[in-house]
Amino acid sequence: MTEAHFISSPMVPNCKLSRHGADIFHDSILYRLVVGPLKYATLTRPEISFAVNKVCQFMAAPLDSHWPVMKRILRYLKGTLFHGLLLQPALVTKPLVLRAFCDADWASDVDDRHSTSGAAIFLGPNLISWWSRKQKVTARSSTEVEYCSLAQTSTELTWIHALLTELQVPFTTLVLYGDNQSAVSIAHNTM
Predict the structure, then answer these.
(1) Which of 16, 185, 7, 15 is nearest to 80 (CA)?
(2) Which of 156, 131, 128, 151 is nearest to 139 (CA)?
(3) pTM above 0.85?
(4) Beta-sheet pairing, 171-177 with 126-134
(5) Among 17, 69, 121, 139, who pairs with 145 as Cys (CB 3.0-4.6 Å)?
(6) What percent of the chain is modeled with pLDDT above 90?
(7) Comparing C-alpha atoms, which of 130, 122, 127, 118 is closest to residue 98?
């Protein structure tokens, strides 16, 4: 990998990986040895969370087709060594806003048709929490999977709200952003 060229994104768009295939990877221990540090890297590099989540799903029996995806993440990291989380001081004159962005990829797993959802939560200008994980249920529509993502994110927001209140950190509002109009309409319905 020392001679590898930089690549601009950690994963190819619309990349569908499967656990079924005849091309078993020759060294599953090597695969696991590379996945471990990548999982650790997601602590400070949230942009690779989705891609790392995908390659982690095949640690038990990796295929040859999974290895290039892993190498792409490594090539991306090689070219972005000096990227990371930027923490900025917040203005003390204004209370902080707690904002969350969530999204979901409906039926993205070709093997079990489960969806992947993720979120990023900001306190003022700073990212304080993020995740990307496979949902536990199989959704029947994009609205359902987006609504589940909104629900997971609101649970996380509620916990952070309680923590900030206990720590007496002043903030004004909680804002949750989702990109599916139907899911947002359902969330706003009080009946």
Answers:
(1) 7
(2) 151
(3) no
(4) unpaired
(5) 139
(6) 37
(7) 122
pLDDT over 80 at 110, yes or no: no
* 110 touches 16 (CB < 8 A): yes
Cβ atoms 11, 73 nearer than 8 A: yes
Among the residue ranges 90-94, 158-162, 174-178, the one predicted with the least confidence is: 90-94
SS3 34: helix
Is the Cβ–Cβ distance between 145 and 178 less than 8 Å? no
CA triple 105-106-109, angle to 5 deg: 85
Q: In the structure encoding, which two tokens stand for residue 139, read together? A: 């959704």
170 pLDDT higher than 90: no
Q: Are 105 and 117 contacting, i.e. CB atoms less than 8 angstroms apart?
A: yes
Tell me the residue type at 172.
T
